[in-house]
Design a protein that fits this description.
- By secondary structure, the protein is an alpha+beta fold.
- It has a single domain, classed as Electron Transport, Fmn-binding Protein, Chain A (Pnp Oxidase, Chain A, Roll), CATH 2.30.110.
- InterPro entries: Pyridox_Oxase-rel, Split_barrel_FMN-bd.
């Protein structure tokens, strides 16, 4: 895979920083294309183990898994730390983003399958650690696990300017940075490009 060079090299994130962004993200958008060539992106909960991202899905399949089976090439995108700010007459956004490219595969090894589900549960509901085994027994037959083995990783970041940080810390209404939530992810990605 040939990644385009970043236009704003001053905003490039290292591989470790991109992995940190993935680890901090509550979800990723996994993008693929369907049989008609229509782009298809779906937000998914996930967990990273080493160089692999894991997702769960219904074992019954659907649009997403049909796309995965047809063309294994996918991209998973995460955006975190999104904050809009206004400084010097300009509106902008601070953010951290990561894009993981690779091939997705259905996990068939029983040990890898169980480990991925345990890791997912521990990421999202660690307070229910004792219930994981029982839930896996009940839901395991209805669950599929998919793994994205990362072939290429790209990351970008933009920090708040010092004045934006001061405004954000003071809670000032004028010029204060504020979180934009998941709705701000599109703006952050537009700003990132």
């Amino acid at each position: 895979m040939n990644l385009y060079p970043l236009r704003r090299v001053d905003r490039a994130a290292s591989r470790d920083e991109a992995l940190e962004t993935l680890d901090a993200a509550p979800f990723v958008v996994v993008s693929t294309a369907d049989a008609d060539g229509m782009p298809y992106g779906v937000p998914l909960s996930f967990v990273r183990r080493g160089n692999t991202l894991y997702f769960h899905a219904s074992s019954e399949g659907g649009h997403k898994t049909d796309c995965f089976r047809r063309d294994h090439r996918v991209c998973a995108t995460a955006v975190t730390d999104v904050r809009a700010f206004f400084e010097g007459g300009d509106f902008s956004t601070s953010y951290r983003s990561a894009m993981a490219f690779g091939r997705i595969r259905e996990v068939t090894d029983p040990l890898e399958f169980k480990r991925a589900l345990v890791d997912l549960c521990m990421k999202y509901v660690p307070e229910h650690k004792r219930d994981i085994g029982r839930a896996m027994e009940a839901e395991g037959p209805h669950t599929a696990v998919w793994a994205l083995d990362i072939d290429a990783l790209s990351g970008k970041k933009r920090s708040l300017p010092a004045s934006g940080m001061k405004a954000a810390e003071s809670g000032s209404a004028a010029g204060a940075a504020r979180p934009t939530g998941t709705a701000g992810a599109a703006g952050a990605e537009a700003e990132a490009n």
